[in-house]
Fold this protein.
Amino acid sequence: MKPGTMSADAFLAEAQIMKQCNHPKLVRLYAVCTKGEPYYIVTEYMRNGSLIEYLRNVNNRLSIHSLVDMSAQVASGMMYLESRKLVHRDLAARNVLVGDKISGVPEVKVADFGLARKLMEENIYEAQTGTKFPVKWTAPEAAQYGNFTVKSDVWSYGILLYEIFTLGHTPYPGVHNRDVLRDLENGKRMACPKNCPQGIYQEMLNCWDQNPDRRPTFEYLFTFFDDFFISSQPNYVPPSVDGTVFDVQAIDGVEGEEIGGGRRRVRRRSR
């Protein structure tokens, strides 16, 4: 960590949060060092680096099965944080790490708990005045008022889905940070990525509901992606490792209409 950005006590408090989080889809903390600046944390090694770089690497030919499975893995880790009343506050593909492949699918884990906070009794964490956040990944209520909840993490998860299904494109392409919140208030949402299944795009829109209370839970999102092929294809057969490659392109604008409607009921599989 850069010198001067956090006191030793604050750093240890952050490390304590990581230490308490024990889940297979969260990066594990092994040790901390605060003897002198810069402070260090030692975590498990994920050999393929960040998800954003992995998605952008043209050598990583990813099938839609892999993209859906990685979405489920992230939702699984976030479901655990949700159950512990913890907010991540910086969920994005850059903060998800990629390990080895398991059954042909890359293993991913949620990382970077530097902003994670325990929610208060009212289930809201209010950030300090002047704190800076990545606008394109941050829910409107969090960016404008500093109010972070599990539902603001759900919004960020929707942006992460956009990153996954565009193979690492930056959200709101061509739109400046200062214009993003204005466009969102006017009801604009990013259009469906090319070749992205409509049901998955619908869940992106559900995550981006202006009303936080109407956004889905991570428990629901995990179930949706974990059972996606079972619930959408009656005679589903798991694809081979060399399955169809998912070809996507960047979206030029943010004019997509917001779509309402109910969510599917799906069956849960053990994971």
About this structure: Residues 46-118+132-232 form a domain with the Transferase(Phosphotransferase); domain 1 fold (CATH 1.10.510.10). The mean pLDDT is 81.
